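Mods, move this if it's the wrong board.
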Amino acid sequence: MFNRIHHTAIICSNYELSKEFYVNTLGLKVVAEVFREERKSWKLDLAVNDLYQIELFSFENPPERPSRPEACGLRHLAFEVDDVEKVAQVLNERGVVTEPIRIDEFTGKQFTFFADPDGLPLEIYGR
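Not the wrong board. Structure tokens:
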């Protein structure tokens, strides 16, 4: 019935700050960017490894939502990487604070968490 997840939508509180983070800090590729005048809203389509996957939105005065990893609802967004230690080091060099690297007790894979400018939990997970 389902083929794959098409995209994840993220609403940010500061569009320019979040755009800078996702494009320049994380290195995601801009697919398209539009301003929707009737909504006073930016929409930025981003690609992860050349596959369109993330929509970044701005809205005037969006309500806050709990976003700790254990809050009810979407827990986090995870990016698969080849080398967790190397990617964490690059993120740290770019000013992103990552948690200590852990090992998934079921898969044996490395992973760690960090946050976007709005505190949305993001994860890097070893291949």
